[in-house]
User: Fold Ribulose-phosphate 3-epimerase from Galbibacter marinus.
Amino acid sequence: MNKNMIAPSVLAANFANLQLDIEMVNYSEADWFHLDVMDGMFVPNISFGMPVIEAIAKYAKKPLDTHLMIQAPDRYVKDFANLGVTNLTVHYEACVHLHRCVQSIKDHGMTAGVALNPHTPVSLLKDLIKDLDLVLLMSVNPGFGGQSFIHQTYAKIQELKELIQAKNANCLIEIDGGVNDKNAAKLISCGADVLVAGSYIFKSEKPIQTISNLKSIISK
Ligand code: DX5
Ligand code: ZN
Assistant:
């Protein structure tokens, strides 16, 4: 997989005219769509589910990177595969049989990611890291867009990078929450491969330009 990627989080898009924002991302230099599914139980917010992803998939011309903030995500792996999701990321904290869930994601033809909340140590992934295509480090507490970046994330990226190298694993590091032009370069230099950005992109005046700026910052 390519590195130094930008994944705009659709959570911050205009839901009353989603097609317009989807086309904007298609046209932009962004690499993936980041889709945040929240169930109101694992996180204190409800976002969107299958019908909305089905609608997005009709127009999206880039991979669908789907971040499940739901309890027991293994119940829905098949449904997300059927919607055409490319990468499915589940939370470490939401999944009792995480190894089985990761295998199921791969068996359904998707790449598999595991997300860690800010308080969850990277070391807990040591027995699973070789099976993963992606690790998502939450750099805010999951549930809402527009929160402030947690600085401890830089150290966690470095720790994760060391674990990946020590285990000879091959997985991408994705950072999600509070990403902007101020922290993007440092995140990449610490070892991140994919940066998710929601409000920084969609609330900006010229989102296409904002994406382009982020891309040039992280490509240096
Ligand atoms: C938070 C979500 C994020 C969120 C990021 O729970 O996982 O993807 O949309 O939004 P910003 O970039 O606004 O922090
Ligand atoms: Zn997310």
The two ends are 19 Å apart (CA to CA). The mean pLDDT is 97.
